[in-house]
Amino acid sequence: MAMAMAMGVGGHRSSSAGAVFTSQVCSRGAGVGTKVAVRVDHVVKAIKADDGSGNGKEKNTLGWKSTHLSARPLTICRVAGVSSDSANTETESKEEAGHRLCGPPLRGRPLPFGATACEEGVNFAVHSSGATAVALCLFTESDLQQGVVTKEVPLHPVFNRTGDVWHIFLPDLQSNLLYGYRVDGRYILEEGACYDARRILVDPYAKAVISRERYGTLGEGGDCWPQMAGMIPDLHDEFDWDGDFPPRIPQKDLVIYEMHVRGFTKHASSEVEHPGTYIGMIEKLAYLKALGINAIELMPSHEFNELEYHAYNPMMSDYKMNFWGYSTINFFSPMIRYASAGNKNCGKEAIKEFKSLVREAHKLGMEVLMDVVFNHTAEGNEMGPTISFRGFDNHVYYMIAPKGEFYNYSGCGNTFNCNHPVVRRFIIDCLRYWVTEMHVDGFRFDLASIMTRASSLWDKVNVFGRSDELVNDTVTTGTPLNEPPLIDMISNDPVLRGVKLIAEAWDCGGLYQVGSFPHWGVWSEWNGQFRDMVRLFIKGTEGTAGIFAQCLCGSPHLYQEGGRKPWHSINFITAHDGFTLADLVSYNQKHNVANGEDNNDGDNHNNSWNCGEEGEVVSIPVQRLRQRQLRNFFVALMVSQGVPMITMGDEYGHTKGGNNNTYCHDNFINYFRWDMKRADPNGFHRFASLMMNFRRMPKIRRFSHWR
Q1: 157 C-beta neighbours (distance < 10 Å), count
Q2: Which residues cross the membrane (predicted)?
Q3: Which of 92, 352, 361, 404 has its Cα between 20 and 30 A from that of 510?
Q4: What is the DSSP code string of 294-362?
Q5: How many structural domains does the chain have?
Q6: Given the DSSP bridges, would you call strands 200-201 and 114-118 parallel, antiparallel or unpaired?
Q7: pLDDT tens track for 423-468
Q8: What Å distances lie between residue 172 and 108, 311, 346, CA to CA?
Q9: Is 446 known to be catalytic?
Q10: pTM here?
Q11: What stretch of H or E contains 389?
């Protein structure tokens, strides 16, 4: 029987976690203004929940307001759709002439999803299969900060719905507005139904999400989770790409640098004008170019809440943060508080800053890869907050057990239902957006094995829309699939097939697919076996020479039989989680006391060796041995066949004091130390830079296949 995992609401994952539950793209032309009157026999019922007062307000607080509409004639707009003269007569009567936010709402169209601008206005479309009532909530920026809705527009359950898609078109919509949805329906947790009209939800397709202005600052009244809203796009908002074109570097030639946007320039020694931002990072791209890097892999830069773990940490005398960002709120929006502009222009300036980063990286011949987290979201388990996906369709977006518990293959409280048809469509749309609109060059998929697991209610009808009259076609939720539909779709998508696709080929449910991830000939993998075997060999573990030699040759024991090439192995020795390279030769045990969890978090198996003495204050012979070991590791990484990946700071020997789980530290522990890089007391930075440029010489990376 499925059991619920005792997890935090949306906490960082533990590596020991088990497999348990826990357009109207607008039509234009003469037809828009042609209307035919139609009498409706029944009362048009607005979305409502009576507060008992009988009084309504235009600016209402974030509770559900009462709106009673009388019966009246409706009109059919032949092109724009079915509409009433107003979707909200109470609001209509209160709006003063010349101060309306929009014209009379129209029916709209079900595709594309999200908010889509055109000359006449904006179309809104969102999926919700079990909703009984939906309202579109509009905000000005000032009203959002005060927690009040500027205007609420009910959607009619017949005229504003096509299948499971609710849609509406607002003509002549005022600029610089934000939006969300209020969704009502059944609230029965045991059945996985979580519709709650008290919440205003973020559209999963919102292109920018606005809440707090600055990174790490609390909301009004000390709120860590203030109301969020999506940016309404402006048709005339343009960005100058200056002829940008993707570098399209052959995968076998890549040298990848895993990095954190904020951590890269936040330390004062970076001396940039806007530290900790996309713009600040641009100032340091030339350094990466000179280092020998031609692909930067950004740790999560989708919208997340850095205050998710906000609590005083007495061990550091500061507050814990969700620094790494592996807890996504919205997959279309860049992290707004990584932008120097913050919320300016409803987030549009933040989008431009991200685009500027990509454009300037391309000018230097560097590709930009994104670390994407389609395995879970910030909403956590059944005790977590309702922000977006849960409120629209809990049982669609998440793997739900029969009694409403959440499957927890991610170790973070919930598991994204990746192979459900609606979720597959969502993920494909999202990836295409980042490639076509934001010009990114590829993706690293966090805990990618979750994307190979069967969705809830898996069967031919649910997944493919047909049964083929097969018997016993149902597969248990979470079962690994040999040909997962999502991976198939990504691999063969005409837009995505040409970008870099990198899988972290395992999950927290025990599924380990290094060497066996379904690949269609286009997927690479983080080679965890390379990491482990190189660590063991260089620290002197007996019996590892043979497998170490295989790793140097591109791991043919993992990839040759499946028809892949050496470059499908992403070779790494360290990553963001775990020891840094310097700590790997300085500590035998983790030292995570600074996290405030009594050293109980983080992995206990690090395959490290301190060279004879624990910590940083050691004898001169041990220091010299450590310097040799650092160079041994770097040489092994750079001469191995496959694609090398180094972690930010390893090139100068950054230390985290033996902490192998620094997810919660927005401080010097995670910041790139430009002063230490410049000092380079042992010459290791110079050595690392020479090795990376040596790696890019044609004779070193000449092998494209095994002989």
Answers
A1: 15
A2: none
A3: 404
A4: -EEEES--EEE-TTTT--EETTTTEE----S--SEEEEEEE-GGGSTTTTGGGGHHHHHHHHHHHHHHH
A5: 1
A6: unpaired
A7: 999 999 999 999 999 999 999 999 999 999 999 865 555 555 554 5
A8: 14, 45, 18
A9: yes
A10: 0.87
A11: helix 389-397
- What is the spatial distance between Cα 394 and Cα 400, in angstroms, rounded to a whole number? 8
Contact 240, 358 (CB under 8 A): no
Domain membership of residue 216 (yes or no) is yes
Amino acid at 540: G
Q: What is the pLDDT of residues 12-23, one digit of tens each?
A: 444 433 333 333
Tokens of 184: 């009502």
Quote the pLDDT of residue 56. 38
Distances (CA, A) of 383 to 1, 307, 330, 478: 21, 17, 19, 21
Count of alpha carbons within 13 angstroms of residue 248, beta-carbon side: 6
CA 319, 321, 324: angle at the middle one, nearest 5? 155
From 306, 308, 504, 525, active-site residue = 504
Residue 611 belongs to some domain of the structure? no
302 in Cβ contact with 4 (< 8 Å): no
* Closest to 404 in 3D by CA, of 415, 416, 392, 394: 394
Q: What's the pLDDT at 58?
A: 46
Strand partners, 398: 416
| Tally of CA atoms within 13 A in the half-sphere of 437 that contains its CB | 14
- The b/e string for 616-640 (b: 16+ C-beta within 10 A; e otherwise) is eebeeebeebbbebbbebbebbbeb
**pLDDT at position 59:** 52
Q: State residue 77's pLDDT score.
A: 30
User: What is the token pair recorded at 442?
Assistant: 């590829």
Q: What would the 3-class secondary structure string for 21-78 be?
A: CCCCCCCCCHHHHCEEEECCCCCCCCCCCCCCCCCCCCCEECCCCCCCCCCCCEEEEC
* pLDDT for the residue 192: 86
Q: Determine the distance from the C-alpha atom of residue 468 to the mean position of all C-alpha atoms in its chain, rounded to a whole number.
A: 36
Q: Answer yes or no: 504 catalytic.
A: yes
Instruction: Provide the residue range defining the domain that includes 189.
Output: 114-231
The DSSP bridge pattern shows strands 161-162 and 569-571 to be: unpaired
- Using CA atoms, how far apart are residues 360 and 286, in angstroms rounded to an integer? 10
Low-confidence ranges of the chain (pLDDT < 70): 1-99, 457-474, 699-707
Least Cα distance to 124 among 92, 164, 170 occurs for 170
- Does residue 485 lie in a domain region? no
Q: In whole angstroms, give the CA distance from residue 458 to residue 479.
A: 9
Pick the catalytic residue from 152, 379, 446, 650.
446
3-state DSSP assignment of residue 232: coil
Which CATH number goes with the domain that contains 208?
A: 2.60.40.10
Looking at residue 79, what is its pLDDT? 27
Q: Is residue 437 situated within a structural domain?
A: no
Alpha helices in 220-277 (DSSP H): 261-265
Give the model's pLDDT for residue 75.
Answer: 29
